[in-house]
């Protein structure tokens, strides 16, 4: 579904992403791991259109999408969440979800003004969808809660919910499990699996928690210092010499703690 060919993203002299080639298969939940500073988020940002690559090309279903802007990619069904959740703190959960379609498609007030008749029907449809998303994520008890009051994990769940407000094909999740308690992490994992199986979402997820990765992801790709080091099952990557080396090189004490 996604093919990156020889993609680089340099910041001045820093080669954050350096000649990366990889593929994300349709229907997969692909994991992206690697030590801090490996270039994982930069690669996500480059694929999702936040950065223009310094070199290389990116394809979505064989269409060259290199250099397209996030909203253009959004309209093609390519979505991403952020390492730090960015909800509207003063709006409720259901309102946060309802913001997504209009906000991301470049909808504006002038447009709404000229199409006032359609707007009410549209809003009812979006409200309905938001309620479905909330039910899907078992967040019914939180629907009217102000997003600013949610726990870190609940905000991550809301981030996932945002990707369900439109018809996504592929979703990039950046550390959706970071700082989330075990119970909620399991729920987020369940939601991802359910979206993958029932709604045919393809996922690519950056994660540091290797148990979480092993439960969800196949294949797993490991990056270090801007390059792809290894790809395989979670077990294969975990036991790969170069991968262990990359983590150890960063001063972690043992292989279990590292990967
Ligand atoms: N906007 C930027 N400007 C300059 N340097 C950047 C920028 N974004 C990232 N970098 C640098 O690029 C390298 C890769 O960073 P990146 O955030 O992609 O790593 P990461 O693998 O996501 O790490 P982490 O696991 O800590 O989130 C780092 O050295 C980082 O300092
Ligand atoms: Mg990162």
Describe this structure in words.
- There is one protein chain.
- This protein is of the alpha/beta class.
- The chain has a single domain (2-258), classed as P-loop containing nucleotide triphosphate hydrolases (Rossmann fold), CATH 3.40.50.300.
- The chain contains eleven helices and ten strands.
- It binds adenosine-5'-triphosphate (ATP) and magnesium ion (MG).
Structural class designation: alpha/beta
Strand order of the largest sheet: 6-7-8-3-9-10
CATH architecture: 3-Layer(aba) Sandwich
What name goes with the CATH superfamily?
A: P-loop containing nucleotide triphosphate hydrolases
Question: What percent of the residues sit in helical stretches (DSSP H or I)?
Answer: 40-55%
Shape: globular
Which cofactors or ions or other ligands sit in this model? adenosine-5'-triphosphate, magnesium ion
- And the CATH topology? Rossmann fold
The N- and C-terminal alpha carbons lie at a distance of 27 Å
The overall strand count is: 10
Q: In terms of per-residue confidence, which ranges show pLDDT below 50 for 5 or more consecutive residues?
A: none
Rg measurement, Å = 19 Å
The percent range for strand residues is: 15-25%
Tally of DSSP helical segments: 11
Short key terms for the protein model shown above:
binds magnesium ion; 259 residues; four-stranded antiparallel beta sheet; binds adenosine-5'-triphosphate; six-stranded mixed beta sheet; alpha/beta; Rossmann fold; globular
Summarize the topology.
Elements (H helix, E strand, L loop, with lengths): L1 E10 L2 E11 L4 E5 L6 H8 L7 E6 L2 E2 L5 H6 L2 E3 L12 H12 L4 H6 L1 H21 L15 H11 L7 E5 L7 H17 L3 E5 L3 H7 L3 E5 L2 E6 L1 H5 L2 H9 L5 H4 L1
Parallel strand pairs: 3-8, 3-9, 6-7, 7-8
Antiparallel strand pairs: 1-2, 1-4, 4-5, 9-10
The structure holds adenosine-5'-triphosphate and magnesium ion.
């Amino acid at each position: 579904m996604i093919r990156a060919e020889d993609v680089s993203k340099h910041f001045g002299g820093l080669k954050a992403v350096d000649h990366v080639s990889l593929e994300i298969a349709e229907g997969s939940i692909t994991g992206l791991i690697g030590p801090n500073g490996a270039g994982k988020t930069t690669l996500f940002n480059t694929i999702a259109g936040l950065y223009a690559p310094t070199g290389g090309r990116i394809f979505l279903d064989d269409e060259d999408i290199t250099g397209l802007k996030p909203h253009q990619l959004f309209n093609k069904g390519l979505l991403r969440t952020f390492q730090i959740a960015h909800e509207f703190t003063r709006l409720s959960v259901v309102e946060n979800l309802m913001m997504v379609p209009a906000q991301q498609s470049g909808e504006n007030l002038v447009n709404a003004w000229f199409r006032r008749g359609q707007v009410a029907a549209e809003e009812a449809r979006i409200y309905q969808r938001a309620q479905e998303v909330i039910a899907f994520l078992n967040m019914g008890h939180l629907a009217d809660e102000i997003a600013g009051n949610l726990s870190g994990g609940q905000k991550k769940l809301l981030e996932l919910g945002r990707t369900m407000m439109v018809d996504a094909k592929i979703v990039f999740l950046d550390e959706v499990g970071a700082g989330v308690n075990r119970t909620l992490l399991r729920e987020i994992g369940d939601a991802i699996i359910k979206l993958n199986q029932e709604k045919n979402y393809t996922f690519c997820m950056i994660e540091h928690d290797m148990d979480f990765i092993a439960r969800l992801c196949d294949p797993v790709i490991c990056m270090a210092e801007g390059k792809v080091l290894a790809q395989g099952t979670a077990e294969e990557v975990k036991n790969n010499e170069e991968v262990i080396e990359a983590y150890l090189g960063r001063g972690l004490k043992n292989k279990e703690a590292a990967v």
